[in-house]
DNA sequence: CTCCCGATAT
DNA sequence: ATATCAGGAG
């Protein structure tokens, strides 16, 4: 009998041994840049986001630049990241709100952040964890898939998955753990053909044991 | 639940 | 051709 807490402990240990130096793979120099980069990262690889932001941040250096920019032009500038119409609208609107309601300062509070257009708990937790040292579990596509495969959650809703994970992962590890799971998801526990043969979690993994 | 959406891997 | 990528909003 291996329960969730035991699986979580084993997983934390495994990740620390194999993904010790995982960190944010989005490139940024300040909270403004990480916020924009994370919005762009929805359903897009970080590699592509980095390619776009490399030139994007030379043109747009702060929220004023996005607020004053033409919407159509922002769309073209971020087009390769996909969902470019929604993302451009959200970035422009969010820039206006931060300037007008928050006096140009990003609110360091998840309950305020998620009120902003285009920002959900995933994006908010990325920003808070990496720029402000506020622990948060980032439930993205990798964390969701792997948590379900390992049986760390039975839920499909990201908010509920986040709650389930907060119960079994030590709070001080939340941010680091999220980066580690994402690296694990990219290299071992991939969506398509997971490398169960070389995965040390195999013996406690429902998914691995349900495969042929 | 659906829609938004381009680029790459399989 | 289809699945997938650091999701969020209506």
Automatic annotation (TrEMBL):
<feature type="binding site">
    <location>
        <position position="189"/>
    </location>
    <ligand>
        <name>[4Fe-4S] cluster</name>
    </ligand>
</feature>
<dbReference type="GO" id="GO:0006285">
    <property type="term" value="P:base-excision repair, AP site formation"/>
</dbReference>
<feature type="domain" description="HhH-GPD">
    <location>
        <begin position="40"/>
        <end position="187"/>
    </location>
</feature>
<dbReference type="GO" id="GO:0046872">
    <property type="term" value="F:metal ion binding"/>
</dbReference>
<dbReference type="Pfam" id="PF10576">
    <property type="entry name" value="EndIII_4Fe-2S"/>
</dbReference>
<feature type="binding site">
    <location>
        <position position="196"/>
    </location>
    <ligand>
        <name>[4Fe-4S] cluster</name>
    </ligand>
</feature>
<feature type="binding site">
    <location>
        <position position="205"/>
    </location>
    <ligand>
        <name>[4Fe-4S] cluster</name>
    </ligand>
</feature>
<keyword id="KW-0479">Metal-binding</keyword>
<keyword id="KW-0255">Endonuclease</keyword>
<keyword id="KW-0540">Nuclease</keyword>
<dbReference type="InterPro" id="IPR023170">
    <property type="entry name" value="HhH_base_excis_C"/>
</dbReference>
<dbReference type="GO" id="GO:0051539">
    <property type="term" value="F:4 iron, 4 sulfur cluster binding"/>
</dbReference>
<keyword id="KW-0234">DNA repair</keyword>
<keyword id="KW-0004">4Fe-4S</keyword>
<dbReference type="InterPro" id="IPR005759">
    <property type="entry name" value="Nth"/>
</dbReference>
<feature type="binding site">
    <location>
        <position position="199"/>
    </location>
    <ligand>
        <name>[4Fe-4S] cluster</name>
    </ligand>
</feature>
<comment type="function">
    <text>DNA repair enzyme that has both DNA N-glycosylase activity and AP-lyase activity. The DNA N-glycosylase activity releases various damaged pyrimidines from DNA by cleaving the N-glycosidic bond, leaving an AP (apurinic/apyrimidinic) site. The AP-lyase activity cleaves the phosphodiester bond 3' to the AP site by a beta-elimination, leaving a 3'-terminal unsaturated sugar and a product with a terminal 5'-phosphate.</text>
</comment>
<keyword id="KW-0378">Hydrolase</keyword>
<dbReference type="Pfam" id="PF00633">
    <property type="entry name" value="HHH"/>
</dbReference>
<protein>
    <recommendedName>
        <fullName>Endonuclease III</fullName>
        <ecNumber>4.2.99.18</ecNumber>
    </recommendedName>
</protein>
<keyword id="KW-0238">DNA-binding</keyword>
<dbReference type="InterPro" id="IPR003651">
    <property type="entry name" value="Endonuclease3_FeS-loop_motif"/>
</dbReference>
<keyword id="KW-0408">Iron</keyword>
<dbReference type="Pfam" id="PF00730">
    <property type="entry name" value="HhH-GPD"/>
</dbReference>
<keyword id="KW-0227">DNA damage</keyword>
<keyword id="KW-0456">Lyase</keyword>
<keyword id="KW-0411">Iron-sulfur</keyword>
<dbReference type="InterPro" id="IPR000445">
    <property type="entry name" value="HhH_motif"/>
</dbReference>
<keyword id="KW-0326">Glycosidase</keyword>
<comment type="similarity">
    <text>Belongs to the Nth/MutY family.</text>
</comment>
<dbReference type="InterPro" id="IPR011257">
    <property type="entry name" value="DNA_glycosylase"/>
</dbReference>
<dbReference type="GO" id="GO:0019104">
    <property type="term" value="F:DNA N-glycosylase activity"/>
</dbReference>
<dbReference type="GO" id="GO:0003677">
    <property type="term" value="F:DNA binding"/>
</dbReference>
<dbReference type="InterPro" id="IPR003265">
    <property type="entry name" value="HhH-GPD_domain"/>
</dbReference>
<dbReference type="GO" id="GO:0140078">
    <property type="term" value="F:class I DNA-(apurinic or apyrimidinic site) endonuclease activity"/>
</dbReference>
<dbReference type="InterPro" id="IPR004035">
    <property type="entry name" value="Endouclease-III_FeS-bd_BS"/>
</dbReference>
